[in-house]
Every structure is written in C-alpha cells, then in structure tokens.
C-alpha cells in the first residue's frame, strides 16, 4: 500500500466516523434555506455559533409574563418566571423548559463551556454556566437574537 493511499483512506474513514454520529433534528433546512429564513445576525448566531454583542437585545429587558421561543422553529424554550437579571447583557434563565434544550461541550475558546441549542432545530442559543441563583445554580446565558417572545 502506498503512503498516499493510506493517508487518503484514513482521512475518508475519519470523516465517515465523524459524520455517522452527526445529530439530526426534527426540523431541518439546508444552509441556503436557513440563510433565506434568518437575518445575517440570526444566521451567524443560530447556525454558526456566533454571539451577539452584550446589551443589544431588547429581550434582555423583557419583564412581562410569557414564554421565550426558539427563533428558528418557535419551540417554547424558557418561561419568563425563570428569567433573571444576571448583569451580563444577555437574557439569562435559571432553567429551560423540560425537554426543550440540549447541551454539548464547547471547546472553541481556551476553556471548556457548555453550549446549549434548541432540541428541535439545533439552533445555537448560548451557554450554560454554574454561577446562577438558587434553586438550580445554573445560568442559561442566551443570545436574544435566537429568541422571540410570546406574552402570556
């Protein structure tokens, strides 16, 4: 076996192994369809795991009773009763609604964080930290651009 054939075969095997475990979601669109459905900032955050600038989302100051929904698929994600002012500049919650959010490790920076995304369409929401208030001790730090708000 030639070295080139070995390297090519190894690369193909690694790609196939990584793709085999790729998560599929109940609601999915092609990349072009997501781009057509979302604004540039929504696409950057929700589909490319970007972050909006702190203190830019009107939802950070939303105080009415209601539900925060995924901007990508309208799945109810967070109850307004679980929202708190973390002072970080992003909407923050002590917990997600049951079964609404999934998490995974995020090692994109020089430290490990827990990324959270919508369980139905996979849209990136933000990160979960262990510095929130009681009773959960969690802080779901969520990009407002990933959410819409439905008043009660």
Tags for this model:
alpha+beta; 26% strand; globular; six-stranded antiparallel β-sheet; 22% helix; three-stranded antiparallel β-sheet; disordered N terminus; 152 residues
Describe this structure in words.
The protein is an alpha+beta fold and 152 residues long. The protein has one domain: Peptide methionine sulfoxide reductase (Metal Binding Protein, Guanine Nucleotide Exchange Factor, Chain A). Helices cover 22% and strands 26% of the residues. It is built from 3 helices and 9 strands, in the order αααβββββββββ. The strands form 2 sheets. A 6-stranded antiparallel beta sheet has the order 3-4-8-7-6-5. Strands 2-1-9 form a 3-stranded antiparallel beta sheet, with no helix packed on it. A hairpin with a 5-residue loop joins strand 1 (66-70) and strand 2 (76-79).
What is the element layout, followed by pairings?
Elements: H1 3-20, H2 31-37, H3 40-48, E1 66-70, E2 76-79, E3 83-84, E4 92-93, E5 101-106, E6 113-118, E7 124-129, E8 139-142, E9 147-151
Antiparallel strand pairs: 1-2, 1-9, 3-4, 4-8, 5-6, 6-7, 7-8
């Amino acid at each position: 076996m030639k070295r080139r054939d070995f390297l090519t075969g190894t690369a193909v095997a690694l790609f196939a192994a990584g793709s085999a475990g790729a998560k599929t979601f109940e609601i999915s669109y092609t990349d072009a369809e997501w781009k057509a459905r979302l604004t540039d900032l929504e696409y950057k955050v929700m589909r490319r795991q970007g972050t909006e600038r702190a203190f830019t989302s009107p939802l950070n100051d939303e105080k009415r009773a209601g539900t925060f929904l995924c901007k990508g698929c309208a799945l109810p994600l967070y109850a307004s009763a679980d929202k708190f002012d973390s002072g970080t500049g992003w909407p923050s919650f002590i917990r997600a609604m049951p079964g609404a959010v999934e998490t995974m490790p995020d090692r994109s920076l020089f430290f490990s964080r827990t990324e959270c995304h919508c369980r139905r369409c996979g849209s990136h929401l933000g990160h979960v930290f262990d510095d929130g208030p009681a009773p959960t001790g969690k802080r779901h730090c969520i990009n407002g651009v990933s959410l819409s708000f439905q008043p009660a």
